[in-house]
């Protein structure tokens, strides 16, 4: 049977070539790393299927100058402040902007007829958030966490459907507090049972399990990566509900944007089959049916759910829900895809919820093939993400995901589907004949990779309500740090240190949230795979440290003496992690110069955290914390300000300046 909708979806999802990589540089992508001392990650399938080189990625942040070890509460989660009610304002008022940076190996963007690229592509950015928990790492199957073990979460499958308690017991047995978790256990268990989309083109790949959604052309054996559903991973837009919220799709051609916008789960309801456990046991989290007819045959109810930003339980009727609430958000009354209820085996009933904004779609930025580096304009490939506004004012725990899809024009991506599998237009390592004598030449084609998806994800982070003193209309720019310890060869395909973004531009009166994270175990030791091991740099081996001091010009390598620092003149503090009031320009300078080791200049203002009281800061920041929760500054004096990091500005191979 030819499924036209799925055929159309293939254009975004057929990915190509046999070797490529996608690495998120800011926020720091994990590439399935946790806290390894080695250059190679230890467990490639720990959380998700990246299909990247084992060397990529960054360790989870450490909160202090000591390794977090088995205590996840000692890990550092980047904390961003949500946008205000920016949709009611003239841009960019009210927006909190986070610059997402990445490198992709096989080129991207600029695919016009007059300047064709070597392949087709798109990049999809998504996030998943849930209400934050006071428990840093609960022992459950739904709470996002980095874990303290590099081992993958467990999974055991029942041979057939059973009573609800059997699923609860199995979920509780499979999930552990020390294992990292992104997608909930229930969504993967559903994926193992749901029939795969048999309208898709699978070329010459024979599915090990012909029926399950865990088997795809790129993953014919149904290999498990955390609790990620392979079919959902490989295809966008997906045709069933998903826990992921769309941020943006960077398309090879803007003409595709109307399609992506219409099919995004942000805008269009997606269907799934809902069945019930026997004896009023509640909603099953799974069904084998993947279409309405099969669902009816299974005595289920085909149900369409909508993506939600969060519930709005204060509005208890449709009229109250859909009234104009003067906050620029879209409220809807219907069936939200409520993963908390699904995880609790509860039926989802009509309710009021906040819809996410439409997916942002724009033409992809240009990058050249076979190059993990900057784009055409000399800066990292990037997208400026406007963080969501959550009207509940609840702090959220989140994960950011980026996928890189590449394909070729060797077959029609719109009209090639399951009907072409018997006579696939591409074969494994085919021979082609050239010349009058018919000379055979072999092409290197793996049909599992001729059309391919790559992925990276960050470590867990939080999005918090704006603090007192920061208004709904304030524009916040996040200034972070990318890179890890080592020289350019040792860190590759990660990067050396730099500020991110490296050259931020703001308007007078804007707020800048300066914050970074680092690890105490970036030793880049053996095994190093196909690259060089080692952690060349300053200070204690394996440790990331940063600070920020004003300099005179970008080509200078000395910071300005305190009496000549003008960067913080006229600056007001919107928020500081310590909560200390009335910080002076000198206080701000010393906080940033010491990476937060000192909180002010004088004991009368901050007690034991003052310069004149606390033990002396080691001159290479060794006793400073690896992560800096930060300070939010309002810059009121127009000008161009240069700054650098004293520790990582090793002139031979690094230049951490902004």
Task: Describe the protein's architecture and organization.
It is a single chain. It is globular and about 75 Å long. A hairpin with a 4-residue loop joins strand 18 (431-434) and strand 19 (439-442). It has two domains: 1-136 and 363-657, no CATH class; 308-355, no CATH class. Residues 1-19 have low confidence and may be disordered. 11% of the residues lie in helices and 22% in strands. The longest helix has 11 residues, at 164-174. It is of the alpha+beta class. The chain has eleven helices and 28 strands. Strands 1, 5, 16, 22, 23, 24, 26 and 27 form an eight-stranded mixed β-sheet that branches. It has helices spanning 4-13, 164-174, 185-193, 230-234, 257-263, 292-297, 318-322, 339-343, 488-491, 585-593, 603-606, and strands at 22-26, 61-62, 75-76, 79-81, 96-104, 106-108, 120-131, 245-251, 270-274, 301-305, 310-311, 330-334, 351-355, 360-363, 367-369, 381-386, 396-407, 431-434, 439-442, 452-457, 461-464, 476-482, 498-500, 511-516, 549-551, 572-576, 628-634, 642-644. This is Self-marker protein. Residues 1-20 form the signal peptide. Residues 43-56 have a biased composition (Polar residues). Residues 526-542 have a biased composition (Gly residues). Keywords: Signal.
Short synopsis of the structure:
The protein has 658 residues and is α+β, with helices and mostly antiparallel strands.
Shape: globular
SS-derived structural category: alpha+beta
> What is the straight-line distance between the termini?
57 Å
Radius of gyration: 26 Å
What is the number of helices?
11
Supply the number of structural domains.
2
Largest sheet: 8 strands, mixed
For the secondary structure, the number of strands is: 28
Helix proportion range: 10-25%
Oligomer: single chain
Hey, roughly how much beta strand do the residues contain? 15-25%
Unreliable stretches covering 5 or more consecutive residues: 1-19
Organism: Halocynthia roretzi
Region (Disordered): 43-67, 518-556
Biased composition (Gly residues): 526-542
Keywords: Signal
């Amino acid at each position: 049977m030819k499924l036209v909708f799925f055929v159309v979806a293939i254009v975004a999802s057929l990915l190509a070539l046999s070797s490529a990589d996608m690495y998120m540089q800011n926020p720091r992508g994990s590439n399935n790393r946790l806290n390894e001392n080695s250059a190679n990650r230890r467990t490639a399938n720990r959380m998700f299927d990246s299909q990247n080189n084992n060397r990529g990625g960054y360790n989870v942040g450490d909160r202090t100058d000591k390794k977090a070890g088995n205590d996840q509460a000692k890990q550092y989660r980047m904390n961003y402040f949500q946008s205000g009610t920016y949709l009611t304002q003239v841009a960019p008022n009210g927006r909190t902007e986070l610059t997402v940076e990445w490198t992709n190996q096989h080129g991207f963007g600029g695919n016009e007829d007059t300047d064709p690229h070597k392949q087709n592509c798109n990049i999809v950015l998504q996030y998943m958030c849930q209400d934050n928990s006071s428990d840093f790492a609960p022992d459950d199957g739904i709470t996002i966490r980095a874990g303290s073990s590099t081992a993958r979460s467990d999974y055991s499958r029942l041979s057939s459907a059973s009573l609800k308690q059997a699923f609860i017991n199995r979920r509780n047995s499979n999930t552990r507090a020390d294992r990292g978790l992104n997608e909930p256990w229930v969504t993967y268990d559903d994926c193992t049972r749901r029939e795969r989309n048999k309208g898709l083109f699978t070329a010459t790949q024979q599915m090990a399990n012909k029926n399950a959604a865990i088997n795809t052309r790129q993953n014919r054996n149904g290999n498990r990566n955390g609790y990620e559903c392979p079919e959902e991973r490989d295809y966008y837009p997906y045709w069933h509900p998903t826990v992921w919220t769309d941020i943006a799709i960077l398309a090879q051609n803007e003409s595709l944007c109307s399609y992506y916008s219409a099919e995004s789960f942000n805008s269009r309801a997606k269907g799934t089959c809902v069945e019930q456990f026997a004896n009023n046991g509640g909603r099953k989290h799974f069904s084998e049916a993947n279409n309405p007819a099969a669902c009816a045959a299974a005595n289920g109810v085909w149900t369409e759910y909508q993506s939600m930003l969060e519930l709005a339980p204060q509005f208890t009727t449709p009229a109250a829900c859909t009234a104009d609430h003067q906050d620029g958000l879209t409220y809807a009354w219907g069936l939200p895809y409520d993963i908390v209820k699904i995880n609790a085996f509860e039926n989802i009933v009509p309710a009021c919820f906040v819809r996410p904004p439409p997916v942002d779609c724009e033409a992809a930025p240009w990058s050249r093939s076979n190059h993990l580096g900057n784009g055409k304009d000399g800066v990292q490939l990037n997208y400026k993400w406007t963080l969501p506004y959550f009207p509940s004012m609840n702090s959220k725990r989140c994960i950011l995901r980026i996928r890189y899809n590449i394909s070729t024009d060797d077959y029609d991506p719109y009209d090639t589907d399951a009907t072409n599998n018997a006579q696939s237009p591409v074969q494994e390592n085919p021979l082609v004949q050239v010349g009058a004598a018919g000379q055979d030449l072999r092409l290197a084609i793996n049909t599992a990779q001729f059309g391919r998806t790559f992925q990276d994800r960050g470590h867990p982070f939080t999005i918090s309500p704006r603090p007192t003193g920061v208004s709904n209309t304030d524009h916040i720019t996040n200034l972070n740090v990318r890179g890890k310890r080592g020289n350019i060869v040792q860190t590759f395909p990660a990067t050396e240190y730099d500020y991110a973004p490296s050259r931020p531009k703001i308007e007078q009166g804007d707020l800048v949230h300066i914050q970074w994270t680092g690890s105490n175990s970036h030793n880049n030791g053996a095994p190093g795979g196909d690259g060089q091991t080692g952690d060349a740099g300053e200070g204690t081996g394996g440790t990331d440290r940063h600070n920020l001091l004003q300099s005179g010009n970008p080509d200078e390598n000395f910071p300005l003496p305190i009496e000549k620092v003008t960067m913080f003149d006229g600056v007001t503090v919107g928020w500081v992690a310590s909560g200390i009031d009335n910080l002076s320009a000198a206080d701000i300078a010393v906080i940033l110069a010491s990476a937060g080791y000192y909180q002010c200049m004088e004991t009368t203002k901050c007690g034991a955290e003052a310069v004149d009281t606390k033990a002396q800061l080691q001159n290479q920041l060794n006793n400073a914390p690896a992560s800096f929760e930060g300070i939010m500054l309002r810059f009121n004096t127009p000008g161009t300000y240069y700054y650098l990091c004293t520790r990582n500005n090793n002139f031979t191979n690094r230049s951490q300046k902004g």
